[in-house]
User: Fold this.
Amino acid sequence: MALPVSMPNSRRRKLSFTIQAWNLSYRIDRRGDKSASKQILRNVSCKARPGEILAIAGPSGAGKTTLLEILAGVVNLNRVSGRIKVNDKPMKVENFRRISGYVTQDDALFPLLTVKETLMYSARLKVAGGHEAAAVRVAELLKELGLEHVASSRIGGDMSGSRGVSGGERRRVSIGVDLVHDPAVLLLDEPTSGLDSASALHVISLLKSMTVEQGKTIILTIHQPGFRILELFDRVLLLSEGSALHHGSLKQLENRIKASGHCIPRHVNVLEFAIDALESLVVKSSSVDDKYFLGTHFNAIHGESRPKVEQYNDRPGGLRDPNVEDPPFLFANSRSKEVLILGERFSKNVVRTKQLFAARTIQAIVASFALGTIFMNVGRQGGRTALQTLIGFFAFSLTFLLSSTTEGLPIFLQERRILMRETSRGAYRVSSYVISNALVFLPFLLMVALLYTTPVYWLVGLRRDLDGFLYFSLVVWMVVLMANSFVACFSALVPNFIMGNSLIAGFMGSFFLFSGYFISSKDIPRYWIFFHYLSMFKYPFEAFMINEYGGEKNRGRCLETDRGICLLDGEAFLAQQGLKESQKWSNLGVMFCFICGYRILCFFILWFRCHFTRK
Assistant:
């Protein structure tokens, strides 16, 4: 069943796969309380053949999506009882993902990329053979999906500020993303959801042509299809409350309905009538798992539609053969190549997000000149007042720099949805995404740091040395990188933007409170002292003061005089603050550890989400 990633398309299309499932049952335990558990599927059996479309239909809550996710290997199979075979061999999830594609109901696409770019990046990540092989495959796919006329159009959406392609075209792009590696099996969750009748028919017709021309095995879920769409299905699995009531052709379903004494109106198709009748005629008995219909209605459907199957391992974990080990999964690219491809894609998204790009640039310039004119030449003035004012400038600068990075949170959250979808299908490694994401922001945030430091440093009148300016700029760069890593870490953890924004703001305020500016470390209670050392304000704040008042040139710099007598010089001031010259570089090391630490924590959170959330 294993399929090498680098196998040519011509060879891959000759392979066909039959998927059979017997007695699939799935139960969700709510909060560990078995009494509050819910049975999603009850002994469902089905078969999908190559060259055919199997449509899983039923009313809302029937278990259609859950069954599709089990067949796609998305749901942890250790929680499912029953049996699944692919070409008469026990299904192995890692192997099955190589020859299958899974299209979710929601379109997880980058709105700022064009149709061709979306497919191209997906092909470069999934298809071995380099850029040329990916370009050939994308050209074939654009023609096959009928997307050549919109190849240069952006996907569009809420974040892009433009409408982009139509809903039907967007859905075909989503299908194309999972078709770039030419899978022999395609599973789709509600491919016609949200589309008008013409677009829905176009999508299903496209899927039908794949079964006829390429022999693909296609399984999809659908709620209530129109008559023309219904004619394109080869077999239908009708579910109700987690049980299979019919598995076969529509003609068989029609004959059974008529045999039970029902007359199907002309304006209602067979499947629509069956679903409506189910909702009105199904009656629950006192037993949770038992179900029957009023009188003899639908007796034929309920009693004869289920195939007689052998009983097999009806305990959790029955889908995996413990005696057969999965071969190691092979990615299409090396980790370094994945980093390059993902970095290129992320760079385009950042550059094309004009609101973010322009806002950060303008914000840095405006804030720099505003603060420079407010604190004009304060660094060249003497006295206790000027000293306190300059310390206030350092504190406010850090507040501005660390709190102005949360606007990247929506981009990180959108990336996370796509990351979880792509890594679940084995497109690339989670570590490659984290590394590429960090590398892309290095030059962007360096530009932001220089735009801020260049005007403000000289306007405020800080020490007139090139090494002092370069060190100040390096600290600012480290600060924005540290904040960016912090936001990236929380974007992997929080469920939505509102929660993420609230938590980030709360932590930033706590970091500022325990930085040593408002209250010295000696006066902080012992049970809160850990927050002082975790504060992202503490280390750059100290670095600013050491850079300004430390060094050989500033040791004898008089900061406060009285009648011509120097009361406080730079060395004495740093001693009052408990700072040493050596901390100038050790603080940078701590900040670098913060940057790496938050990125590593981000990796582990994303890795856990991608691999264990469904468990």
Remarks:
- The longest strand covers residues 33-48.
- The chain is about 50% helix and 15% strand.
- The mean pLDDT is 80.
- The radius of gyration is 31 Å.
